[in-house]
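quick one, 373 residues, struct below
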Amino acid sequence: MRLTGARVFDPLKGFNNRELSIWEGKIVSRCDGEGVDLSGCWVIPGLTDLHFHGCRGADFSDADAAGLQTMADYELSRGVTQICPAGMTLDEPQLVAICRTAAAHKKNAGGGADLVGVNLEGPFLSEKKKGAQNGAWLRNPDAELLLRLKKESGDLVKLVSVAPELPGALEFIQRVKDEVVVSVAHTACDYDQALAAFDAGAREATHLFNAMNPFAHRDPGPVGAAADSDCMVELICDGVHIHPSMVRAVFKLFGADRVILISDTMRAAGMSDGAYTLGGQDVTVRGSLATLADGTIAGSVTDLMKCMTTAVSFGIPLKDAVTAAAVNPAKALGIYDRVGSLDVGKEANAAVLNPDLTLRAVLFHGEVAFGQL
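---
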């Protein structure tokens, strides 16, 4: 397959008008055959969402095989070709169940977006900043529990969130930093506590600004500590969680190479308004806003592709938005050697966008999975 006439993403140069050749599921330097004219379109790598909970009525925390398949299918239809779904704060038996469900899904390879990891957002979080997490199952950091869950998942657990102020948090980070990516999250910590966590080996900040102390001029908190470290920062760009001005500020402060766009979607993504659940708690969805009964924002209903184009509508250059949604999450998960860009030799996972950035087609392992060229 040869795609011609399109503006093709390049992680260094932005976009080039060049031919993209695909052969046997891989991107190659050139191939024969009739070309497909995509003049005016954009071709970008398939996206990687390393933090989302559910969609289309399914939630990863349900530990339901059919639900996980539904999630994988929907994400692929939205140009997200790699997924790393996130669990919630749950009791240990349910955490084991979601890890086993992920391992079985990976082994069975039933289709849909590639399951490339599991994100454990909880239970090692602060009661003060629990947000939509269930406080009944919060606990102090426990390395042995994490390692058991990693084993149950078939080594799919790639990320874990932790509040640095909890007892034993720094020792936990030092113990597991070479096993998984540790992310500072749902925390009431101050600047010094957060910086100590990054110095100990934490490499990410979970949904920056949300469920953490604010970035103030005399009390910079975890956001300031993240800026003074070399960590990556997640950002929910759904138009609800973060003001457009703050989105622009984050890209300026951290640089596009350190920002990871995430969707943080819950089961209502891809569904109509109504009543849903998240981590066992009731959620009401109206438009793009999902809230608990007390008004707490409870995840997102905006998929990652839409978050990426929303970032562009806020003034983020398309190159930077694609970098944050495709390149950086792949690097964070250690899979950039095979996905995340359109370099020769990588898997031919890509999204074709119309001139107005609406999704036209999704290529998965070199085949048209959704839409049409």
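The domain at 47-337 is CATH 3.20.20.140 (TIM Barrel).
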